[in-house]
Design goal:
Blueprint: H1 12-19, E1 24-30, E2 39-44, E3 47-53, E4 59-63, E5 77-78, E6 82-84, E7 91-93, E8 98-100, E9 120-123, E10 126-131, H2 146-149, E11 154-162, H3 166-173, H4 178-182, E12 198-203, E13 206-211, E14 221-226, E15 230-236, E16 248-258, E17 261-270, H5 274-305, H6 321-343
Helix pairs in contact: 1-6
Length: about 350
């Protein structure tokens, strides 16, 4: 993306492409970022939000903007089931409704839902929120990744923030061949051939991008899934010394913080139960986790060093079919959403 198409100077479609698609769910932060009775300011899809949790654990999300004068609600006081703005004391509950204006009881603001309050869900230790536009305020259907809901699967969430556009983080996962080179010295990623041919295999929820001549050796395939939330699934073969459970799986999601920063969510999982689960968790915490953070660091360093407009001056080849397919999909969706809003007068 060039300077002429940044969110500040470009079209509405450019803004969505740069800061994240609307009308779907996105991960925001790990659940533990907001303790019971606590609140936290977060940024997602280029906008500021407030997460606050009641003492009973129920979580709410509000636009970080008081409906009175626009002050940050995140600077205010947590009152249990509502937040009071520090500036003039205006109180807003978890639905975004003004419940009290202390300076003028009975004020017309009271009882009005004036603050955006996205629906939220928590899964696998992460907060997911639905970001709809003016034409789609109600949340779309959400089907969660099977490894995060299957009782026979055990997963660990790893979270980090990278100074890179969200699209580059997803493209990195749709590029299996980089594992053979960037991660060659890391853990089990050095196996297999350094040459390969790939194909795209469409599914009813997205598509596979996979090697046609190698399977079960390295990072040989990845599936993009669009089930109300976008996520990827991939598998890394593991030796018997890594404990029970067979291949090591990864579910990945990203949060477009803004046009230049991304929150990455990686659930590392294996299909294990009973004593095998305990063995897997012990090995992961004592041996495997450090190695996989090392792999993520390699991805971070590479992506953060890429120019923001790297995708405007490329020379792609057959291994990049998965990336090209992804870009076309996201660009088309951004243009579709922008066109609908413009036609309805909401641009």
């Amino acid at each position: 993306m060039t300077a002429a198409t940044t969110p500040t100077t470009g079209t509405l479609a450019d803004r969505f492409y740069a800061t994240g698609l609307r009308n779907q769910w996105h991960p925001v932060v790990p659940s533990h970022f907001v303790a019971p009775g606590g609140m936290r300011r977060v940024r997602a899809l280029g906008e500021d939000w407030l997460l606050f949790r009641r003492a009973d654990g129920r979580l709410h999300m509000l636009a970080d903007r008081c409906p009175h004068r626009g002050a940050r609600l995140s600077l205010g006081r947590h009152l249990g089931d509502r937040v009071a703005c520090w500036y003039h004391g205006v109180e807003v509950d978890g639905t975004g409704t003004v419940t009290s204006v202390p300076g003028l009881p009975g004020c017309a603001l009271e009882g009005k839902q004036l603050v955006t309050s996205p629906p939220v869900r928590e899964v696998g230790g992460a907060v997911l929120a639905y970001f709809g536009d003016a034409l789609h305020p109600e949340p779309c259907e959400l089907t969660l990744p099977e490894p995060l809901t299957d009782p026979g699967t055990d997963a660990f969430l790893c979270y980090a923030e990278w100074e890179t556009p969200w699209r580059y983080a997803v493209e990195n996962l749709l590029d299996p061949m980089h594992g053979q080179f960037l991660h060659h010295e890391s853990h089990t990623m050095g196996e297999g051939d350094t040459t390969a041919k790939f194909r795209i295999r469409e599914t009813d929820r997205g598509y596979f991008f996979e090697k046609t001549d190698q399977r079960g050796v390295n990072f040989d395939w990845v599936e993009l899934c669009r089930t109300g939330v976008d996520w990827v699934d991939l598998s890394i073969p593991y030796p018997p010394s890594a404990g029970p459970g067979g291949p090591f799986g990864i579910v990945g999601m990203v949060c477009p913080v803004d046009e230049r920063r991304t929150g990455v969510f990686f659930w590392r999982y294996r299909h294990v139960t009973d004593w095998r689960r305990d063995s897997w968790r012990f090995l992961y915490r004592t041996l495997i986790e450090e190695r996989h953070w090392h792999v993520l660091e390699q991805d971070r360093v590479m992506l953060e060093a890429m120019p923001y407009d790297a995708d405007t001056a490329e020379n792609l080849y057959q291994h990049d079919l998965g990336v090209v397919r992804l870009r076309r999909l996201y660009r088309a969706e951004a243009e579709k959403q922008a066109a609908a809003l413009t036609a309805a007068g909401h641009a």
